[in-house]
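WARN no homologs supplied; continuing
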Amino acid sequence: QVQLVESGGGLVQAGGSLTLSCAASGNIFSVNVLGWYRQAPGKERELVANIGSSGLTNYADSVKGRFTASSDNTKNTIFLQMNSLKPEDTAVYYCRYSANVLVWGQGAQVTVSS
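OK structure emitted
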């Protein structure tokens, strides 16, 4: 069993920054993919960024150059540094673990005011 605990998020003005973190625990496979997704009101959940256990990352076009995903493998934790935030970035952000099982975090609200 794998558990994900997210932290961070909150309210920020446009142009500001926030950092999310997601700590994974339990039966974690060494080869896995941890990622960040978001879901805005009335919209489908979408990929923001993925980090493979090899360190390879990929980003949604809408966040490239503004968001940075990173990981601390010793702590099984991933981070999402979000800079130059825009009102359209407002959403609930979820981390996701994919390997032996598929697990979602509890979600963190990010609200960007104009």
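Residues 7 and 26 are 18 Å apart (CA to CA).
OK
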